[in-house]
Structure prediction request, 761 residues.
Amino acid sequence: MQATEHHVCLEKLERVRESARRLKSLRGALIPVLHDVQDLYGYLPEEALSVVSEELQISMADIYGVATFYSFFSLEPKGEHVIRVCLGTACYVKGSQEILDKLCEDLDVEVGKTTADGRFTVEAMRCLGACGLAPVLSVENKVYGKLQVTDVSKILEDYRSK
Amino acid sequence: MSNFEKRLVVCDGTDCDAPNAEKNLVRVLRREVMKVGLADTVEIVHVGCLSLCEFEPLVISYPDGVVYSRVKATDAGELVRTHLVEHRTLERLLAQTNGLRTEQASSIDHIPFFSHQFRIALRNCGIIDPEKIQEYIARDGYQALAKVLTEMTPAEVVAKIKGSELRGRGGAGFPTGLKWELAAREESSQKFIICNADEGDPGAFMDRSVLESDPHSILEAMAIAGFALGASQGFIYVRAEYPVAVERLRLGIAQAHEYDLLGENIFGSGFSFDIDIRLGAGAFVCGEETALMNSIEGRRGMPNPKPPFPATSGLWQKPTVINNVETLANIPPIILRGASWFSSIGTERSKGTKVFALGGKINNVGLVEVPMGTTLRQVIFDIGGGIPKGKAFKAVQTGGPSGGCIPAQHLDVPIDYDSLTQLGSMMGSGGMIVMDENTCMVDVARFYLEFTKDESCGKCSPCRIGTLRMLEILDKITRGKGSMEDLDNLRDLSEQIQVASLCALGQTAPNPVLSTMQYFWDEYVAHVVEKRCPAGVCKSLVRYTINPDLCRGCGLCARECPVGAISGELKHVHVIHDDACIRCGNCAEVCNVDAVLRG
Prediction:
């Protein structure tokens, strides 16, 4: 079992290396490579960043600087399900803050953090551009629109039972 | 375009796709059309966003233009039978906007939401299939590029854009032709054109819509700009949060290459141009030109002091022009129809049209393109259909976190760059969020400051520290702990931050605060002096009570209360226990007799 995990891990790192090598000739390659790494792992693990650093000849300090600047990148692993509540203006005036508060309360977790059991990460998002459905939240790629506070428990229930 | 006699178009934008229904809806409609033997005469097409998001998924039938709204896959059979076989309109699904739902108002030409608009940037949105380059070409697509490459010199192209008096649609309203001229004048072995598609203003989604619905218009415009400036490489910097737009741009670039409309020696003219896509990574400040270029270069997206301006030293120190998506979408029509046609539309100093993303407390949420000079009232009431549930209009926020809130007494002001600035707001990218009597203006100001505080890149201290201090004061006020002195400090800080910040993010960050203080001073005073939130939004200042005269003791509120803070026996007046109440407002929401008082 452990051997397989190790194998998977090495294989993923190899894919990071491939991506870095493929994009190396591109000017300003770092951000595109970081997008690839995040796609692969769901976050930016340190081992993967070391590979990026080695291949692109960019120091870990610089990579850390870039990775922490952009909210899209995360240095911490995310939960199994990432719930993003839109706090764009259209959603906000229609009560999305209350949706977010209720979610944090139900899951007993802070915004931007992951539940102790690793199942859910709650994030606040700046405008999904789906203002017609305000207020909205998304779980992975699924969007829930025209929400009311009372919908939160039901949505959570759907994912808890999965 | 095809041999089909009729065409049903189905919206495929992000809003619509959200319920994951449309791909399915198109499939089901096709199946139903086949069932009734019309598969050879009726075509079912995906189009990009039709922009009336509130009522989507929409299905529009052409050539008659009848608009059906909120169509579900289960409606497909009935729709096809009634509309296509029996040639009757299906009353049940007719779009109902502005409270209208008559035979007369059923067609796209008569629905006020569409008929009051004038579409240049959105000309193809909701009409063509964005994944087919042939459909774009059939609507005069790439003709402007052909004209430019075969009949015009770069200087003539620049002169034409200058003559149109087009101004940048991304925020500041800088004249586009002048920007092009400055970069064209530079001698350099390499120049760049960048499309700024990092639509960060929360509540604005016109760029997403154009990219999703009409990607080729942007590619064509960039190639035209490339020719005018002498640039052979373009970049589109687009938000990673817009996966559909990214996918359609990638597809569009590949198709344009296949048709030799991008790449080497376009139209045999000797002009070569290519476009690369770069994904943003969630930083609002990257909408600022120099920050955006730092991001493309692979660094933290922080702005640089100007000068040097990008036109002289931009991306990798080369002359660079950065245009916003909507600005670029206007370029091909200007080339084809002429500068004087464009400059005949709009007001004295703001020409053409502007797309607004109408959202918030408004009936017809969606995208609206109107000539500059249209009044706020026309946009919000005639096109937007007014405020839901008969509530009173309070303010409209324009310009996002850089803009301000405009109150009812200015509803008849014609909208252009200058009039909005005079009102203490700004055009910005065109977000237009409507607020009603239940919106607290102090809370709105706090909301925007929270946004700018989070998005401040930290490079300059007026913005980094100043916005945090402002937020702290606003937090204090909304929690009922503020004083009149805080209001003075808030104004003072605002003025300092405006003049001392490095880039537009900081310089405009105080606008939401200053404009709400200007127009809604009473609300600030109510929070500070009376410790009261007139709109009943600021939780620390709100109390919920039950009016014993109205309560019928149905028990609904007690059942809906998430914390069990309401007690009472059935058919007896209920009571809310203030110490347990979390002020969620569920009770007021569910009460059928409006017995729950907020205040």
